[in-house]
TrEMBL record:
Highest taxon above the source species: Bacteria
Name assigned to this protein: DUF1579 domain-containing protein
Organism: Pseudoalteromonas phenolica
């Protein structure tokens, strides 16, 4: 009987030591992670979420239903618009100074997925936005770059699309947080005139 009690006591002590070591490891890991983040911030590596401008896209974090309206052929004189629905889910990355948006688009000729990735540059105060169409997974579009002012975000890039030099503009309207809107426009005359070819209206799920 005494032997059994002694064995039980040993097991209890061993269990307590394991729990203590595990808790100590977790504490040390968290402290080391915090120190690493602080050192990275001092060295200018990475971005804290409270830097001015780093929260510009927080309005779109979450899950959304999206109503799309798009020119059927962006490079034709035929200005027929098509409308379709979609789903979108956006979450933070880079410690809050970036986000990734996963999209499901119910195109008239078949559904597909696409991803938008956004990252904030604290030194320039500007955002870069990349778009990846799931139908062409080996091609990431040239990032559009820009910033927000008075809840309107404007982002630009120079592209060659179907052999034509094209200026691309993304516009975000965050003036209504429960119904943000996005629009894409192209310019073929160095930005003198713009034609909107795709809009999205976001509604919370």
């Amino acid at each position: 009987m005494t032997q059994n009690v002694t064995q039980v006591n040993k097991l209890l002590i061993l269990g307590a030591l394991i729990r203590f070591q595990s808790a100590n490891f977790q504490f040390n890991y968290l402290m080391e992670l915090q120190m690493t983040e602080q050192q990275a911030s001092k060295n200018g590596v990475g971005v804290q979420a409270d830097v001015a401008g780093a929260q510009d896209f927080d309005f779109v974090i979450g899950n959304w239903r999206v109503h799309h309206k798009r020119l059927d052929n962006m490079f034709s004189e035929d200005k027929r618009w098509v409308e379709f629905e979609g789903l979108s889910s956006t979450s933070h990355i880079l410690g809050g100074a970036g986000n990734v948006e996963d999209n499901l688009l119910y195109f008239p000729d078949g559904a597909f997925r696409a991803v938008a990735m956004r990252a904030f540059n604290a030194q320039t105060g500007r955002w870069s936005i990349w778009w990846l169409d799931g139908r062409f997974p080996d091609k990431v579009d040239t990032p559009v770059v820009g910033s927000f002012k008075n809840n309107i975000g404007l982002f630009y890039a120079d592209e060659v699309i179907k052999g034509r030099k094209t200026k691309v503009r993304f516009q975000w309207d965050a003036s209504m947080p429960n119904n943000p809107k996005w629009a894409q426009a192209f310019s073929f005359d160095e930005g003198k005139s713009w034609e909107t070819n795709w809009t999205m209206s976001f509604i919370p799920q």
